[in-house]
Specification:
The structure is a single chain. The chain contains 20 helices and no strands. It is an all-alpha fold. α10 (about 215-230) packs parallel to α12. The longest helix is centred in the middle third of the chain and has 23 residues, at about 170-190.
């Protein structure tokens, strides 16, 4: 019976560098990360053991940097196979990010070689057409059903890139970046998996780099700012927004795109407790939209509009305690929303309910929650359901009133309860 030898390349490099045990290497990597200025990275012996196994996972981005710097060899030389390679070992063909733990930005797809026949020039437009379809389906298909299809499409894109030449390669890379961006949006906003979304956004950013698409890169980084922003990590969110704005300056960004960057930063500042800065950013976004410019927004930017900006504004005003202004902004958002914005409509209903609850208008608050539940029954959106739950908690002092009890009958009927708990 043949005995497995594991990743002998990494083991040989470890021993050659003077680290006789896996624990020695783990300790050295943790210490070296600190000297490199990488905060909070701790490598355990279990991780090193996985790297020296038969199917070593692609290391996390920070781990990549430390491994390469400490051992003086590339990841491929150390026995790791990039997730982009069609022939590399993958225990899960649907999710490269889970297998690989995220792709590093230094990885060059140009170094990947394929033994398959070259793809025709039509492969780019064919792959991109499916990406466009998934983008439209996001607004109507249940997230848990759409996500596997999107990730499977991303796997196909990873396999196609090594088999194509320019300009088809760039077309596929850009569509792949959009695909990973969509998957990350589902993971963050719909499935509430921020750590998973972070890894997916990294893959999206790498693909955008292969396509040399700075605007798409800016959009991806701005989405990544939501992750620390929603947990109150202002410094990390601001750092990512600086990077997003830097990428946007490298290309011709539309007024709508620049206003969206303001709105993203405003939401992060709101979540971090600085509503004054957030309102200033929203005011600037409104000015940018009014001034306009000659640049058109990219086709893939289907998540923002003046109505969405009004919704951002209303939420910030609500949290700042400016209730009459919040009510006005949110009602304006509802009136100006176009067909296809149903997911955001549930959030606006939830915020309007919160305004009325804070104003002591219990019946009006329950009415808006009912509107949100009606919409959630048609188009599920975890962010919208979060707003509903927040309002119900705010109504606890009034839970014996008839309208609140009727609301509970709606909120905890069979279909809503099973739907919420299953997600």
């Amino acid at each position: 019976m043949t005995r497995s030898t594991g990743n002998v390349r990494l083991k040989a490099a470890r021993v050659a560098a003077g680290f006789n045990s896996q624990q020695d290497l783990a300790d050295a990597l943790t210490e070296h990360a600190g000297r490199m200025g990488i905060r909070g990275l701790s490598v355990g012996v279990r991780q090193v053991r996985r790297w020296e196994s038969d199917n070593p996972p692609w290391p996390q981005p920070d781990c990549q940097r430390v491994l390469v710097h400490l051992l003086g060899q590339s990841l491929e030389t150390l026995g790791f196979t990039p997730p982009w390679g069609a022939d590399g070992p993958k225990s899960d063909p649907v999710r490269p990010a889970q297998v690989a733990g995220g792709a590093g930005l230094s990885l060059s797809l140009a170094s990947v070689r394929s033994t398959s026949a070259p793809q025709p020039a039509t492969a780019g437009s064919d792959f991109r057409s499916v990406t466009k379809s998934h983008r439209r389906l996001y607004w109507s298909v249940t997230p848990t059903k759409l996500h596997p299809a999107v990730m499977a499409h991303a796997t196909l894109g990873c396999a196609l890139i090594p088999e194509t030449a320019e300009p088809t390669r760039s077309v596929i890379a850009a569509a792949l970046a959009e695909t990973y961006l969509l998957a990350g949006r589902i993971e963050f906003f719909d499935l509430r998996e921020p750590s998973l979304a972070h890894e997916t956004f990294l893959l999206a950013l790498q693909a955008a780099g292969e396509a040399d698409d700075s605007l798409l890169g800016s959009a991806i980084i701005a989405h990544m700012a939501f992750i620390p922003g929603w947990t109150g990590d202002r410094d990390a969110a601001r750092e990512r927004m600086i990077a997003a704005r830097t990428y946007a300056r490298r290309t011709s960004a539309s007024a709508e795109f620049l206003a969206w960057l303001d709105a993203v930063e405003a939401e992060c500042e709101t979540r971090c407790g600085d509503t004054r800065t957030a309102l200033n950013l929203i005011g600037h976004a409104e000015d940018v939209l009014r001034e306009g410019n000659e640049h058109a927004s990219p086709e893939w930017m289907d998540w923002f509009s003046p109505a969405r900006l009004a919704a951002f504004k209303g939420n910030t005003q609500l949290l700042a305690g400016h209730l009459p202004q919040a009510r006005e902004s949110l009602l304006d958002a509802l009136e100006t929303m176009a067909p296809g914005e149903e997911k955001q409509r549930t959030v606006v209903y939830g915020d309007l309910a919160a305004v009325e609850a804070s104003s002591g208008n219990t019946e009006e608050a329950c009415s808006y929650v009912g509107e949100a539940l009606d919409q959630l029954a048609l188009t599920w959106y975890a962010t919208g359901m979060d707003r509903v739950r927040d309002v119900r908690r705010a109504l606890t002092p009034h839970q014996h009133e008839r309208c609140v009890r009727d609301l509970d009958d709606r909120l905890y009927d069979w279909s809503t309860t099973v739907s919420a708990l299953s997600r």
